[in-house]
Specification:
The complex is a heterodimer of chains A (215) and B (325). With 215 residues, chain A is an alpha/beta fold. Chain A is 35% helix and 30% strand. Chain A is elongated, with a radius of gyration of 19 Å. The chains are: A alpha/beta (215), B alpha+beta (325). Chains A and B meet through strand 5, helix 9 and helix 10 of A and helix 7 and strand 8 of B.
Chain lengths: 215, 325
């Protein structure tokens, strides 16, 4: 919250290393986080870094438990009802949200034509729902938590909506991209109240991150 | 045996109730001392009346009564008080001052800690001059925050018309305009810049608009804003300057921060708007502003201004500020 050192939510997982790089570039020493420490909270260079799952970042930032944070645009789109201010596109962690189906298989088109309804497995039900709605199609969304590539292979759904970075996972599971939904990168976000009450600190950090991420 | 209540509602038990009552009494005392008499209105109104604010709301509870009339649970007190003034005080000598302490109802997404039923305390000043209205309301708000013991609370002061007028000036219309306003409302700067570029105003002007939304702080930001140019900016900053200078003259500007990125999600505001923050809480404590357009909807050519504070949030901030000493 809006006093004491600035609290920054840092995503573990795929965005972790590049988030640390860009924080380093902004003059925040992240050496301690790069070790194999089991700690989740680190005090360094006058700020507090709180590490968490990327999908938890909007929750912490919205409530003010973290003043600012870094997370993927995919997470922000999926949790678009969370009120956080999106201040900066950090440019890294580039990947695509896509509709994919089994290579050479025409179940998607078949389902659309004969059943009027697609069955889609996804970890991103809200993004998928908005996408099918905006393209005038009806879809039954099956939410799964784990490896979504598995779903069409065993008959859970005609296709999947998922995040693709290199496309290797799709390829290995005999899936191909059919439609591209949106491109996602890492974003710098802020709590609404912190953005007002800690304006100078947050503006300065935003400027430094902008510079660091442009390199 | 557990008998559940709907999500977003809650029971209040004696320890909390005592504290809430003390807080309520402190606020009402401030309002009364400033001449704002307390009023009560029904929790249910005709939907057609509530909808005059902003068109039919997507987040209000609506239902039919036994004769087929569409009713709505009030979502705030500003609209019912505007109705009350138009109905019962149309011939009264302005300005009129009213205060309230009442529950409002809004449909919210479950499991987000948001309340469907919430208590607001606030005031409405109707028929004062536009210059005086915002200033007096902010003064009363400051006294209310003092009475609640929120020494660290801050009032953000912005302008409701700035971006509408700025976009008009830049010739951004139709869908492009709606897209820009939507990204402004969610404060998504990445999308804002892209939408402005898509609207074809050129990257320099797009940058300027984005910069404008980030100007917040003391009265020095008004000068910075004017440097960014344009008639809309000139009008908004001149008006904010007037309000700020008058507050300063009355010694009531200490808590006020100018914020050119401020937007209220209710469409009936015009001119100065405000929001209340406390460093102890990640959520907005309340807000308000000038709403002349709403009075017109009820057939009165009055300038009006007011604010509402969420009582529970003020209470939470009070506890948190006391804990931090």
């Amino acid at each position: 919250m809006a006093d004491g050192p600035l609290k920054i939510a840092v995503p573990r997982g795929a965005l972790f290393t590049e988030s640390l790089d860009v924080l380093d570039g902004a003059g925040i020493d992240t050496a301690e986080l790069r070790g194999d420490s089991r700690s989740l909270i680190f005090e360094t260079s006058g700020v507090v870094l709180v590490t968490m799952r990327p999908s938890d970042v909007p929750t912490y930032v919205e409530s003010g438990a973290a003043d600012v944070g870094i997370t993927g645009k995919d997470v922000l789109l999926e949790q678009s009802d969370r009120v956080v201010y999106e201040l900066l596109d950090l440019g890294f962690g580039r990947c695509r949200m896509v509709l994919a189906a089994q290579t050479g298989d025409d179940r998607l088109a078949e389902a659309q034509r004969r059943l009027g309804m697609l069955r889609i497995a996804t970890k991103y039900p809200r993004i998928a729902e908005r996408y099918f709605e905006s393209t005038g199609r009806q879809a039954e969304l099956v939410e799964v938590k784990g490896s979504v590539e598995l779903a069409p292979l065993v008959g859970l759904g005609d296709g999947i909506v998922d995040l693709v970075a290199t496309g290797r996972t799709l390829e290995e599971n005999d899936l191909e991209v059919r439609e591209e939904i949106v491109e996602c990168t890492a974003r710098f976000v802020a709590n609404r109240v912190s953005h007002k009450l800690r304006a100078a600190e947050i503006d300065e950090l935003t400027a430094k991150l902008r510079e660091a991420s442009a390199k | 045996m557990i008998h559940p209540i709907p999500p977003g509602t809650r029971d209040v038990l004696p320890d909390e109730m005592r504290e809430l009552r003390r807080l309520e009494a402190a606020l009402i005392e401030v309002f009364e001392a400033r001449g704002y008499g307390e009023v009560a209105t029904p929790a249910i109104e005709y939907d057609e009346v509530m909808a005059r604010a902003d068109g039919p709301s997507r987040s209000s509870y609506r239902f039919f009564d036994e004769s087929g009339e569409l009713l709505t649970l009030r979502s705030d007190m500003t609209v019912p008080i505007a109705r009350l003034v138009a109905t019962r005080f149309a011939a009264a000598e302005p300005p009129l001052r009213f205060s309230y302490l009442a529950s409002g109802y809004r449909a919210v997404r479950p499991q987000r800690g948001q309340m469907r039923e919430f208590v607001q305390a606030g005031v409405e000043l109707i028929g004062a001059s536009p210059e005086e209205g915002a200033v007096e309301v902010i003064e009363v708000l400051e006294e209310a925050l003092d009475a609640a013991g929120l020494g660290s609370a801050v009032i953000g002061l912005g302008d409701a018309d700035l971006y509408r007028q700025l976009l008009e000036e830049l010739g951004v219309e139709g869908e492009a305009r709606d897209a820009v306003l939507a990204s402004l409302a969610t404060h998504d700067l990445v999308a804002l810049e892209q939408n402005l570029l898509d609207a074809g105003i050129g990257s320099e002007r797009a940058q300027t608009c984005v910069q404008l939304t980030q100007l917040r702080g003391g009265s020095e930001v008004l000068e910075q804003a004017r440097g960014l140019g344009g008639a809309a900016v000139e009008r908004a900053t001149t008006q904010l300057r007037q309000v700020f200078d008058e507050l300063q003259r009355r010694g009531a500007a200490d808590r006020v921060r100018i914020d050119l990125g401020l937007l209220r999600d209710l469409g009936y505001y015009s001119g100065p708007i405000l929001e209340v923050y406390d460093p102890a809480l990640g959520y907005v404590l309340g807000g308000g502003g000038r709403y002349d357009g709403l009075m017109k909807q009820f057939g009165l050519d009055y300038s009006a201004a007011g604010f509402g504070l969420y009582l529970d949030r003020v209470h939470t901030a009070q506890l948190e500020e006391a804990r931090r000493g």
